[in-house]
Design goal:
Layout (H helix, E strand, L loop, with lengths): L8 E4 L5 H12 L3 E6 L2 H15 L3 E5 L5 H11 L4 E4 L14 H29 L2 E6 L12 H21 L4 E8 L5 H14 L3 H10 L9 H11 L11 E4 L9
Parallel strand pairs: 1-2, 1-4, 2-3, 4-5, 5-6, 6-7
Length: 259
Amino acid sequence: MDLGIKGKRALVCASSKGLGRGCAEALADAGVELVLNARGAEALETTAEHIRSTYGVNVTTVAADIADREGQDKVLAAAGTLDILVNNAGGPPPGMWSDWEREDFIKALDANMLAPIMLMKNLLPGMMERGWGRVVNITSQSVRAPIGVLGLSNTARTGLTGYVAGTSRQVAPEGVTINNLLPGIHDTDRAVGLDGGAARAANISIDEARANREASIPARRYGTAEEFGAACAFLCSQHAGFIVGQSILLDGGATNITM
């Protein structure tokens, strides 16, 4: 399918690896010019060079921490005019409700709620003026069904979802859509880290922890960055203009809800 976005320009945050990279590659495959951001310069440049050589699109890299204002300003200054924004950031560490102090919540809110909001606040006016724009926020399945050990993520990402619910309907008349993609477990470094924690807690191997988690997913496997990226690229396409303010699960059926 031709997504109709060849020549558009996108910022993809936290895109040197994992789900962010999957989104970047899918957009590049559709002919989108990219601005890639991540904290680690070496991994970021490696990903950028792969995308340039594979897809033949222009790629600008900005090594910065998107969770702080200085990093956001650096990314926005380098990005210029953008048609597409994919908000993404690593999730906060797991734990129990008794583990977290105020500072932990502030850090989670900065990375997973306030940073996406600030990027939208800066970029939405230009998109609205030009009459077209796409924003996709990568959040978590925990927005629909909370995960006890991910309380920091539950809190921050649910707050972002509330912001999107109202804002998306205000900007839609100008041809701009905002939606959320809610990943379950995908085969990324984040999954490896969570499996490691589960293995230590249960005194089992990481392979056993992964097998246990896969058994809890109706699809009986972890998702891939490639299929997640394809879903993101569709939401960014010309065909998705009537999808507004939605939170779409990509979790292999793991979230046991009716709607």
